[in-house]
Amino acid sequence: MNIAIIGGGAAGFFMAITVKKNMPDVSVTIFEKSRRVLAKVGISGGGRCNLSNSFEDVRDLKSVYPRGNILMKRLMNRFDQKDAYEWFESNGVPLTTQDDNCVFPESQDSHSVIDCFLRLSGKLGINVRTAHELKDIAKVTDKSSGNVLYELIFREGCKEAILFDKVGITAGGQPRIGTMEYLQNLGHKIEIPVPSLFAFNVNDPVLRSLTGATVDEASVTLASTNFRASGPLLVTHRGFSGPAILKLSSYAARYLKEKGYECTLIVNWTGGKDNNTVAGELLSIASLNPQKQLGSVCPFCLTSRLWNYLVSKAGLPVDKKWAELGKKGINKLSNILTDDEYGVAGRGHYRDEFVTCGGVSLESVDYNTLESKTCPGIYFAGEILDVDGITGGFNFQAAWTTAMVAALSMCGK
Questions:
Q1: pLDDT tens for each residue of 121-163
Q2: From the CA atom positions of the chain, what is the Rg in Å?
Q3: E strands of 228-312, at which residues?
Q4: Is the separation of the CB atoms in 32 and 8 below 8 Å?
Q5: Beta-bridge partners for 3
Q6: Which of 13, 197, 213, 263 matches a 20 to 30 Å C-alpha distance to 79?
Q7: Could you tell me if 4 and 152 are in contact, meaning their C-beta atoms sit under 8 angstroms apart?
Q8: 3-state SS of the chain?
Q9: What are the structural domains, with CATH classification, of the chain?
Q10: CB burial readout 324-340, b (16+ within 10 A) else e
Q11: 253-308 pLDDT tens trace
């Protein structure tokens, strides 16, 4: 039996290794379009590879999987984050869980994961072919058995034309609708791919001069929508980034695409406290520091630079004394702290990492096996599926879970 895996990334190697461990006698070949395998694993998590999450604070998978949460809930009954943790440790990659529940290799080096995959694939005899970009898949009926086989047709320069009994498709990266035309031709519904997990550009030179300023807990909302997120917020040379923004971009990926990445962002710098609560705390600060200047007392753990910027944006002088604020001044400060507005003028990029919202519609796959409904013998896993998560190790967990389930299904288990 010949099995092909399309995509030499995290899900592709995980699927190939699982298939080969369960069916040692089959031939398994990974086809990667670029000249390097596992490139995205290498740069993930700043080179440390945030390969999962403890899920300790997750009460509803919808909060971490904006798309595909129902499927993930079912599949994680078969292979969840604890299983993934055990898999890596048993295969020579000791792990550690941070205070924020993110799981990393104990080495803090993504090459620990890469080396593990390359070692296992070599030991198991998995064939790896790079510079093989898939162009099309053709159905071929075997004359002797009557079974449907699949011929992989690659771009120019790749002359291999081998028939495969089963195909696992795990292509990731940033797929465009045109690159998945062959899947449409095979009867699969495609959800148009759009970017997810990105920073926001803001045309405010004064804000951007605060590059590097951080807030440990902020709440961000897109005006006139229900899209909101919370977490650390980072001011960059282009605008805003950090976990709060990345989560918001994931939740609102399709909405932001429709708006051309131009909208109004509302920032609550206090981590979600309401206006009345903030006003009350400011009054308390004023009563305790009546003769001090506004700029010298920074509330809500804000940095001095950021606080002075907000005071000025509220229309107040930073050298004004707290005792001179009055009700009107308190209201200005509480408003800027809880409902600070910024015009989003485009999206940035989260380093070289990217996640795509969209891909093969979940309507086109079996929820229990991840096998194609229109092409028996073709299975999907990883980012090619319309499943994506927020930052924090959830996308890699989706890769491990979907790849494991698809591989076991491919093996008849």
A1: 999 999 999 999 999 999 999 888 888 999 999 987 666 557 9
A2: 25
A3: 228-235, 239-241, 262-268
A4: yes
A5: 28, 166
A6: 197
A7: yes
A8: CEEEEECCCHHHHHHHHHHHHHCCCCEEEEECCCCCCCHHHHHHHHHCCCCEECCCCCCCHHHCCCECHHHHHHHCCCCCHHHHHHHHHHCCCCEEECCCCEEEECCCCCHHHHHHHHHHHHHHCCEEECCCCEEEEEEEECCCCCCEEEEEEECCCCCCCCEECEEEECCCCCCCHHHHHHHHHCCCCEEEEEEECCCEEECCHHHHCCCCCEEEEEEEEECCCCCEEEEEEEECCCEEECHHHHHHHHHCHHHHHHCCCEEEEEEECCCCCCHHHHHHHHHHHHHHCCCCEHHHCCCCCCCHHHHHHHHHHCCCCCCCEHHHCHHHHHHHHHHHHHCEEEEEEEECCCCCCCEEEEEECHHHECCCCCEECCCCCEEECHHHECCECCCCCHHHHHHHHHHHHHHHHHCCC
A9: 2-195+354-410 (3.50.50.60), 198-349 (no CATH)
A10: ebeeebbebbbebbbeb
A11: 999 999 999 999 999 999 999 999 999 999 999 999 999 999 999 999 999 999 99
- Cα–Cα–Cα angle for 20, 73, 251, nearest 5°? 110
Cα-Cα-Cα-Cα torsion 58, 62, 66, 67, nearest 10 degrees, comes to 120
Tokens of 271: 């981590």
Look up residue 82 and give its two tokens: 């604890």
Please provide the size of the chain in residues.
413
pLDDT for the residue 175: 57
